[in-house]
Design the sequence.
């Protein structure tokens, strides 16, 4: 079992907080937010996505932009990294993982974004 992440920060009026992998969405299309490593990893693995970063975006020896490499999606050249590196960076930056399980029509959704609730506060 991985550690559980960090407390969710910032205001999330429109999102459902998820704290464990067996917690489901309240309705399809709902935006969910978590910092739980098991939830994030399960979400990615259900989609065949692997932890990744953008080459050249490193900062202080840590991965720069955290992303997922989804199978069958072209676009940027992504560099695969370990889950340990991905989560260490995620926790150090106190990021929130905002995501969807399903679109409102019930189809599986790959939508996610990483939010830094502390950015822009000062």
Sequence:
């Amino acid at each position: 079992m991985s550690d559980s992440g960090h407390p969710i920060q910032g205001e999330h009026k429109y999102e459902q907080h998820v704290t464990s992998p067996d917690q489901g969405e309240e309705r399809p299309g709902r935006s969910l937010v978590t910092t739980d490593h098991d939830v994030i990893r399960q979400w990615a693995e259900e989609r065949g996505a692997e932890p990744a970063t953008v080459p050249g975006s490193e900062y202080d020896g840590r991965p720069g932009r955290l992303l997922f490499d989804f199978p069958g999606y072209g676009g940027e050249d992504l560099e695969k990294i370990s889950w340990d590196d991905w989560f260490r960076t995620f926790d150090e930056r106190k990021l929130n993982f905002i995501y969807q399980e399903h679109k409102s029509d019930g189809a599986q959704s790959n939508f996610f974004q990483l939010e830094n609730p502390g950015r822009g506060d000062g």
Remarks:
- The longest helix spans residues 37-46.
